[in-house]
Every structure is written in structure tokens, then in C-alpha cells.
């Protein structure tokens, strides 16, 4: 159960203490932010698939980048040409990469991805192409099977990354 947040501020440091009650014990998560201003900034690039609703391609907060789910559109387009699962995963990751570049980052700075796939049978192909694109870099990852995705696509990827310093 979530108990609350304590915020302590000085001129250059902000401490956030999140407190949770877990099995009759208080668990605290301390976060320290220093130096720069932390505001939410929207990222939008014409080199990735355009948004189709009331959301941003990505937002940054501090050095973190939160990338919205990317469908298998060819990067920079909104063409509804749904290709093979291999093409879709490459296009999803291509859109992700273009958004990362616009946010001063790259695929090697991805911390975590969440992949939504329309059929668990796609898992081996998705994993194969994903490994080819990411190479030696292995971000944390979740794959969530679901029945359907928007526009008939079979894969969608969202990610969290950090900016280059």
C-alpha cells in the first residue's frame, strides 16, 4: 500500500522519498535529483511515424526518455501497409531509433522495452530481429501477448532510455 511522498528541497538538490507499506513493514524508495531543472519536454520528429492521437512520440524528464508505443509503420510515414512480422519489428525499432536521435540518444541508451505481440507464436521471430537490431546491448524487456493491436499490426514497442551527456 502506498503511504505517501516526502519532498525535501534545497537550492540545488531535491530528495523524493516514496513510502510503501509491504507486509507490515515500511519500505522507502529515495530518489535524489541534483543540478538541472527537471521539466517534461515533448519530443516530435518527422523522421518517425506521426502520432495518431492525443499523445507525444516521446517525452523527456531529466535525462530519461519515455517513448510511446511504436507500431510497424515505415519510419516517417503513416502508411497502413502492414508487412511481415519481421518488417514490422524493424519498422517499430526504426521509429524508436529516430525518436531517440531526436532526443539526443540512441539504441544503446535504451534501458527497458515493452513489446506487445498479437500472437505468442511470433515470439521467436520477434526475438531474432530484436537481437539483430540491438546486438550486444540487452535492455530489460517484457513481451506481452495480446489479441489485437491497432490497424491490424502484430507488434508494438514502447521504451525507456537515457539521453547522452
How are the SSEs placed, and which strands pair?
Layout: E1 2-9, E2 13-22, E3 25-34, E4 40-43, E5 58-61, E6 64-71, H1 85-102, E7 110-117, H2 123-134, E8 140-145, E9 155-162
Parallel strand pairs: 7-8
Antiparallel strand pairs: 1-2, 2-3, 4-5, 5-6, 6-9, 7-9
Describe the structure.
This protein is of the alpha+beta class and 165 residues long. The protein has two domains: 2-34, no CATH class; 40-162, 2-Layer Sandwich (60s Ribosomal Protein L30, Chain: A). 18% of the residues lie in helices and 40% in strands. It contains two helices and nine strands. The protein has helices spanning 85-102, 123-134; strands spanning 2-9, 13-22, 25-34, 40-43, 58-61, 64-71, 110-117, 140-145, 155-162. A six-stranded mixed beta sheet has the order 4-5-6-9-7-8, with helices on one face. A three-stranded antiparallel beta sheet has the order 1-2-3, with no helix packed on it. A hairpin with a 2-residue loop joins β5 (58-61) and β6. α1 (85-102) packs parallel to α2 (123-134). It is globular, with a radius of gyration of 18 Å. The chain starts with a strand and ends with a strand. The relative contact order is 0.17.
Radius of gyration: 18 Å
Helix content: 10-25%
How far apart the termini lie comes to 36 Å
Q: SSE order, as H and E? A: EEEEEEHEHEE
Uncertain stretches of 5 or more adjacent residues: none
Total tally of structural domains: 2
CATH class of the largest domain: Alpha Beta
